[in-house]
Amino acid sequence: MDHRATQAERGRDLERLLTFIDAIVAIAITLLVLPLADLASGVTGSGSVADLLRVHQAQIWSFLLSFAVIARLWFAQHRAVRHLQDADATVSWLLVLWTLTIVFLPFPTALVAEAGHQAVVKVLYIGTITVSMVVIGLTVRTIRRRPPLADGVGLPQMAPSVVSAVLLGVALVITLAIPATTYYPLLLLMTESWVLRAYDAVAASRTARRTTHEDDAEPPVPDAAAGSETVRRGAGPAE
């Protein structure tokens, strides 16, 4: 009974932690839109909304970009903890660290609107997203190494986190090497599903070839009936 009570309490602790994280993500997204809400006061009798939108298009662009990024990171984190039924200290602190990257993201978002062309801003912005994805990967790795933390139905996969982190690294290299691309290289993240399908196809092909090679390498099993017949012939009456 005590074991069941302890397990139930740990389950409630995990639920509270995940609820806390979801609330922080919602607050972070809200913080992104607050600067845009302040822009409404800039509309005067002589000015138009179209002029306001044109003047502040960089802020609007950075808001939309970061909204999409945070949403994507949340979905990735959700996939990582979908089958989690218990969280030890390592998983808990990794989730808290991931939350820190989300809380910090509105700061580089504001920098993107004001000085997005600077290399240091690109490193700070894309670097924060990359760190967030790496932390998700570490969380997945920890859960996979400790199956009792999961519900027994399934385990999170490492491939999506690894592919996303690699694509983010490539995007950072491209935007630094070709400044005119600005933040468009982040669209590489949209190719994640294609890369994963290609990876699965290559892995399946390798597994099939390995299985075929192992089957060919196995020595043929002698036929028991034929062996018995040979023995009987060799044991015939001597002349």
TrEMBL record:
<keyword id="KW-0406">Ion transport</keyword>
<dbReference type="InterPro" id="IPR010617">
    <property type="entry name" value="TMEM175-like"/>
</dbReference>
<keyword id="KW-0812">Transmembrane</keyword>
<keyword id="KW-0630">Potassium</keyword>
<feature type="transmembrane region" description="Helical">
    <location>
        <begin position="57"/>
        <end position="75"/>
    </location>
</feature>
<keyword id="KW-1133">Transmembrane helix</keyword>
<dbReference type="GO" id="GO:0016020">
    <property type="term" value="C:membrane"/>
</dbReference>
<feature type="transmembrane region" description="Helical">
    <location>
        <begin position="87"/>
        <end position="107"/>
    </location>
</feature>
<dbReference type="GO" id="GO:0005267">
    <property type="term" value="F:potassium channel activity"/>
</dbReference>
<dbReference type="Pfam" id="PF06736">
    <property type="entry name" value="TMEM175"/>
</dbReference>
<feature type="transmembrane region" description="Helical">
    <location>
        <begin position="17"/>
        <end position="37"/>
    </location>
</feature>
<keyword id="KW-0472">Membrane</keyword>
<feature type="transmembrane region" description="Helical">
    <location>
        <begin position="161"/>
        <end position="184"/>
    </location>
</feature>
<keyword id="KW-0813">Transport</keyword>
<keyword id="KW-0633">Potassium transport</keyword>
<protein>
    <submittedName>
        <fullName>Putative membrane protein</fullName>
    </submittedName>
</protein>
<feature type="transmembrane region" description="Helical">
    <location>
        <begin position="119"/>
        <end position="140"/>
    </location>
</feature>
<keyword id="KW-0407">Ion channel</keyword>
<comment type="similarity">
    <text>Belongs to the TMEM175 family.</text>
</comment>
<keyword id="KW-0631">Potassium channel</keyword>
<dbReference type="GO" id="GO:0015252">
    <property type="term" value="F:proton channel activity"/>
</dbReference>
<feature type="region of interest" description="Disordered">
    <location>
        <begin position="210"/>
        <end position="239"/>
    </location>
</feature>
